[in-house]
Amino acid sequence: MTDDTTPSTDESAIADDSGRTIELEVTVPGTPDEVWRAIATGPGISSWYVPHTVEEREGGSIEFTFGPGMDASGRVAVWDPPRRVVFDGGDITGLAFEWLVEAQDSGSCVVRLVNSGFGSGDEWDDQYDAMRDGWQIFLTNLRLHLEHFAGRTATASLPMATWEGTEGGCWDRLLADLGLPSSLEEGDRIGTVGDAPRLSGTVARVGVHEVALVVDEPAAGTAFFAAESVGGSVSVSVWSYLYGDDGAAAVARDQPAWAEWLGSRGTGESRGS
């Protein structure tokens, strides 16, 4: 399988005290204005990443959440539509996220991410590795959002839990417990079975221990399953982004059930309900 996010370089990257940056790019359909709405506005970002509110101006505020009790804030450090936006932590030390949009002749755009501000030490090493892997998933989801649902807004469901074991072992167990094949390929039609909430669609991308889907049940949208090593544990996620009133209703109904399902198979540490 091919990977749509490949390393890139950019002289406009924000300074990084550790000398490390995450630099990735993805080609997506759409005009620069359409792509800008997806990466620089609250409704756009919320439809493929995590829920955001963005004050759309330089110096504006940002609020976002990865789930209950995991809220954070920042600022718009640079606002140059539709070419460049930078989000950072303001006057406090923290990560910075620079997004650049470059139009292509084919009616598509290259979106480049430069994630900087990493410190040094083992804890930062773990965070760097986890974020690099995570961005691969989210940039795929950005591409799927713009390919299939451009201009629409999704409701995000972000349940995850900590499981014991190796990353590969947790991934194999996740697929088995969901009733999914142990080997997946792009274009496969799959759906959950058993006691898991219903989620079905078509495989859009297969990674080492993650799979991205375009789903039609319980509503139209995108989703991904992933098992990711974070420090000494494994974080297992079943995240979805569902569109329209049907999608919002499905998230309200199923997100607590997913959190319970994942937590019952893990160490008891789960979130998303």
What does this molecule look like?
The protein is of the alpha+beta class and 273 residues long. It has 5 helices and 16 strands. The protein has helices spanning 32-40, 42-46, 122-148, 167-178, 244-264, and strands at 6-7, 22-29, 52-54, 61-65, 71-80, 84-88, 96-103, 108-116, 154-157, 160-163, 189-191, 200-206, 210-217, 221-230, 233-243, 270-271. The strands form 2 sheets. Strands 1-2-8-7-6-5-4-3 form an 8-stranded antiparallel sheet. Strands 9, 10, 11, 12, 13, 14, 15 and 16 form an 8-stranded antiparallel sheet that branches. Strand 7 (96-103) and strand 8 (108-116) form a beta hairpin. It is globular. It starts with 5 loop residues before the first strand and ends with a strand. The model is unreliable at 1-17 (pLDDT under 50).
